[in-house]
Automatic annotation (TrEMBL):
It comes from the Eukaryota. GO terms for molecular function: ATP binding; histidine-tRNA ligase activity; RNA binding. Residues 5-61 form the WHEP-TRS domain. Keywords: Aminoacyl-tRNA synthetase, ATP-binding, Ligase, Nucleotide-binding, Protein biosynthesis. This is WHEP-TRS domain-containing protein. It comes from Strongylus vulgaris (Blood worm). GO terms for biological process: histidyl-tRNA aminoacylation; mitochondrial translation; nematode larval development.
Amino acid sequence: MNEAELKVLQEEIKAMGDEIRSLKTDKADPTLIKAKIAAMLEKKKLLGDGQTDQGKFVLKTAKGTRDYGPKSMAVRESVLKIVVDAFKRHGAETIDTPVFELRDVLMGKYGEEGGKLVYDLQDQGGELLSLRYDLTVPFARYLAMNKISNIKRYHIAKVYRRDQPVMTRGRYREFYQC
């Protein structure tokens, strides 16, 4: 449909909408109003959105992940507060590490077999990175880089695993580890 035909169709739809509003104001026969609405909807279908049903964008979370609403978050925060308070009672301090590490650093522990379960990334410069599989390697790297030999710490963060999640067993690709 060219631009001129599109404009004519839009004007027809607008006129039909005006007519329907007028009929509703005049309290016309509901059957007539329904027929006019159906005709207008048919015209609107001709406008289309440039996409077929197969090409429509569907909003959903990625497989193995989920959203957490206010109630779930309240429970999570309550549980984590209890856990954090226990760590602090025993003198632990918290640390935080990046959500991704250099791929070579992670593969040093997991090897190529473990590499199948790690999400890989590449930055604009071509550097290979991976999302953290667990909190062990980032912690070991932190200790080595900061020359720390003794620390009482806790770390609560999300980790990522590229496996085939089985939802019935409660397995996810993104989850918290402590």
